[in-house]
Write a structure and sequence with these properties.
The protein is α/β, with parallel strands linked by helices and 217 residues long. The protein folds into two domains: 144 residues, HAD superfamily/HAD-like (Rossmann fold, 3-Layer(aba) Sandwich); 67 residues. The chain is built from ten helices and eight strands. The strands form two sheets. Strands 5-4-1-6-7-8 form a six-stranded parallel beta sheet, sandwiched between helices. Helix 8 links the parallel strand 6 and strand 7.
Length: 217
């Protein structure tokens, strides 16, 4: 059996979460009588950034102390809005297939407070991952490589691949000297992803086992 390691991003890679995040942000905004945000405005910002960065982009004139409060409210409200999250195509089946040959790490810019209800509501058992690294586990999240490095350290393995939907994933993988497999289920276009030169681009994670078989021939 192989002991290779594959790292996975979460949002828009394993789970479709745009509506879940939209509703959580709007519940936080409602609490402070801030204007509701539309999916059209939010969507381009869901490109790998963590919640704090999204809030700073949406509310550039709001003081940092209020951004921190809104960020924590967003994390709390995800428990309610995670019901809007959906698993990407065949994701549970694919993870089970890969688990037979690989160690699997989840490395995400979500905090544990966010990722746990998202996994639960999409029926992805968190035990399928050998390690889960969130934004709150490292000093610097993607596009820095710290999340990948921490997964490698905890599992005593060098990651072979990182799978993600954003340019943040590509940059982090390159900094960690890990091959990056980009998926087209996020908000970034294929052309935008190509500019950052991932090693491979696939439509979604359901194509991953076939790609890995071809690579390992």
């Amino acid at each position: 059996m192989k002991s290779d390691l594959i790292c996975f991003d979460l949002d828009q890679t394993l789970i479709e979460t745009k509506k879940a995040h939209l509703e959580a942000f709007n519940l936080a905004f409602k609490k402070y009588n801030l204007p509701q945000v539309t999916l059209k405005k939010l969507r381009p910002l869901l490109d790998g950034r963590h919640a704090g960065e999204v809030l700073r982009a949406l509310l550039p004139k709001v003081p940092e102390e209020k951004i921190i409060i809104l960020r924590e409210l967003h994390h709390d409200f995800i428990k309610k809005t995670a019901k809007y999250a959906k698993p990407e195509k065949n994701v549970v089946k694919i993870l089970k297939i890969l688990k037979k040959e690989y160690k699997i790490a989840l490395v995400t810019n979500c905090t544990h407070k966010e990722l746990e209800p998202l996994l639960k509501n999409t029926k992805i058992d968190k035990k399928i991952f050998d390690v889960i690294i969130g934004h709150d586990d490292v000093k610097r999240s993607k596009p820095y490589p710290d999340e990948i490095f921490k997964a490698e350290k905890l599992l005593h393995l060098k990651a072979d691949y990182h799978v993600g939907d954003s340019i943040y994933d590509i940059i982090a993988a390159k900094r960690a000297r890990v091959k990056c497999i980009s998926v087209l289920t996020g908000v970034s276009s294929k052309n935008r992803l190509k500019k950052y030169k991932p090693n491979y681009i696939i439509k979604d994670v359901s194509y991953l086992p076939k790609l890995l078989r071809n690579i390992n021939k």
